[in-house]
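Protein Record: Sequence and Backbone Structure Tokens
======================================================
Tokens: labelled as protein backbone structure tokens, with as many entries as the chain has residues.
Question of interest: how does this chain fold, as expressed in backbone structure tokens?

___
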Amino acid sequence: MKTKGAILWGIDQPWSVEEIEVGDPVAGEVQIRMETAGMCHSDHHIVTGATPMPGYPVMGGHEGAGVITKLGPNCPADLEIGDHVILSFIPACGRCPACVSGNMALCDLGAGLLMGQAISDGTYRIQARGENVIPMCLLGTFAPYMTVHHTSVVKIDPSIPFEVACLVGCGVPTGFGSSTHVAEVKPGETVVIAGIGGVGMSALQGAVISGASKVVAIDPNPWKREQAQKFGATHTYESMAAAIMPLIEITEGRMAHKVILTMGEMHGDYVEEGLILTGKAGTLVITSMGRMDAGDVKMNTFLLSMLQKTVKGCIFGGGNARQDAPHLLSLYKAGQLNLDDMVTRSYSLEEINEGYKDMLDGKNIRGIIKYTEADW
């Protein structure tokens, strides 16, 4: 079918909204009419080249929610036309060694996420200007329609608004799980969250729900620090350096039990800053993405070992999309997880470059693209 999509034709180029052709689902695939798409910083890493792609053009978007409109052969019996679904940016086969060991966020199918070939048959599902298009994370939610493998699809409660549902495909479980699964925040602990965007605000809420007694939010943007207080932050500071002395005071010198780095782009010197804020036997979780070609990290290894600190990496919150997405949305329905206020602004697909400018200017916690009948 012919529709439109936001295409990237090269590094540092703007998103180009133009006609695309989306293939019908083959065995194991579904076609989805998209209702909303989240505008995550990870897509901007493709623009800058921080996440290198094997070629161009690239279709953006890996957060989204919509309705199943077509089913290919051999799809799971629990998926039906009309189902409300979200897209998980990492597929989960349930059978590979990572999945069966409980690490579904590390499913072996993730090895091909940025290559573009469909899981089902190794071909491409999207074309633009007669060329094959690589969809971000084998999804490409920056289009009103998409054809994807069922391992990337999670069925959700149809009463959940699409505007918030789209966030649980990446940003919310990544941040929330950074606190609950990876950092394993416990009641009474002091937790520092550095970087208060969509992922950071979700990590903050995960720490609050886990019972942290002190939740310190760090961000250079005054508006985001103000918003963090509404979501449960007990203290806010403009930088990790500025937080050192106050943290010494409020913890009686013990520093934080857990520090979680969720800034838009990771740099090697942030590790040392984070470790300074981390107390004895504490844990530093690195959720933020850096450039794939960056290899320098600064840290004091003497203090790392002598104070028995731990540094952990984190992808997708270390969780399981099929379990975590419904769980997070149930917390939302119960009024315990604030997703409504995380959606700062809605944009049309044609306004995508404006939306990313707002993100870079620090105006949004999370911007979303909202599709209408005019798009379908």
